[in-house]
Amino acid sequence: MRPLDPRLIARIGPARRYVITTAALGLLTAIIIGVQALVIARLLAPVLAPAPLTEDGLGWIGAAVPTSVRTLETGLLWLAVLVVLRVLVVGVQERLAHRAGVAVVAELRGRVVAHAARLGPRWASSGEGSNVTTTVTRGLDGLLPYFVRYLPQLMLAATVTPLMLVVVLDLDWISAAIIAGTLPLVPIFMVLIGLVTRAHSAKHLEAMQRLSSRVLDLIAGLPTLRALGRHRGPAARVRELGDAQRRATMGTLRVAFLSGMVLELLTTLAVALVAVTLGFRLVYGEVSIETALAVLVLAPEVYLPVRNVGTHFHASADGLAAADAAFDVLDTPVAPVGGDAAAPSLAGAALSIRGLSVATPDGRRCAPESLTFEARPGAITALVGPNGDGKSTALLAMMGLLRPDAGDVSAQLPDGTPVPLSDTDADGWAQQFAWVPQRPDLGVAGRTMSLGQRERAALARAFDSGRPILVLDEPTAHLDIDARADVVNRIRTAAAGGATVVVATHEPELMAAADAVVEVASARTEAS
Fold this sequence. Notes:
By secondary structure, this protein is an alpha/beta fold. It contains 15 helices and eleven strands. It has helices at residues 6-11, 13-48, 72-119, 121-141, 143-171, 173-182, 185-227, 235-283, 289-315, 317-330, 391-398, 426-430, 451-464, 481-496, 508-513, and strands at 350-357, 365-366, 371-375, 380-384, 406-412, 418-420, 433-436, 469-473, 500-504, 516-519, 523-524. The strands form three sheets. It has a five-stranded parallel β-sheet, sandwiched between helices. Strands 3-1-5-6 form a four-stranded antiparallel β-sheet, with helices on one face. Helix 3 (72-119) runs parallel beside helix 10, helix 5 runs antiparallel to helix 6 (173-182) and helix 8 (235-283) packs antiparallel against helix 9 (289-315).
């Protein structure tokens, strides 16, 4: 995790504008703080001085605040105006921070989801889909403290701290030397604590992802588990994952509180060292009361932004860990599918698959291997073969949702014109397919349905879609005998109506109804 992640600034427009605005507001805040310290010194010096003040103890920098501020009425008026200005600047900064944080999180979420969709269902089904769900929902919410708290303090540390140190140097070089010597200790301790925080944040995100994956799988299969009387079985495991997340969360909070305490103690001791030194020098008359008061007010302001940077950085570490996970998804290359030509209407077109081979994610096998078949309109084509040999993968490649490693997919239009998928817009191509996967997701409406009910609802949508090509992956696997017969009849009706139907199945009923049965096989690659 980096103090200022350049990927957030480079890729997200609102972040860039906000950082520039925050830097300008931070400089304005630094000026207000400096003038406020001088006003307090002017106001209190006559009260604490053992004798009436005859000289200006603030030197040339005191020209920013006239000596008339020593009077109670003038001093309080100046102080009230400065406090109001500081409150307004902080309020504007907070408002902009919230707006920028929400805009950045929303834009980053949209980009991650869009990129995950382009990576395709095969990538999502490999286990990354649930991790993306966790990242773009609960994970990226942790970025709000990063923008609302951490970035403003980082800008203040870059503006207020050096400016205040220069002012202290002009007032009293000895105090400035003490502050300059102790100030580097704060980032050193920040780095040491950050090494611990990084591990806790990664553990917290991993626990969230495990719990989310388990819960999503449980929700998807709960109707089936309940029908089988096994719905209480996963409760113990979910409880264990919840406890793991609770421990990870408490560990992150513990480190955040520890970092705040350590930085608070360090800066308190540093300011105390400046105060004690000034006290002894006041006794011996080496420094004026007005100068000492100004330095004492400014010293904590020098440390405060740097201390807050450490505190808020650790508090927003979970969001930065989620941002790293989001950028890992965005950096995953997308294998291009199709070309630039507009997709023609596939109504009445025959699909031709020649020598189609797709390597498995581990690269050890091709599943399918050298698959060749033709799917004609008005006919049912059934893909059969053992599980894992690539029937579903072949369907994805045929729809333009997956780029094959070898072979090609093309359409033969009714007028005889061949249209290869490699030259065609893949989105326009895929939109003409009505696809029902093995476990259809119907959203919120499907959560109360069993898997068989969801299957039938998804099939009904596909049959009623009016799209020219139906792609059905194990459409009868979760249905009873009567429901299977009904689905087979509807598939026959759709084919008789001119639709191109491609089915991946193990069911004898569907094989018997098919006009063509294609055996799908896999093979080990030479590298394995």
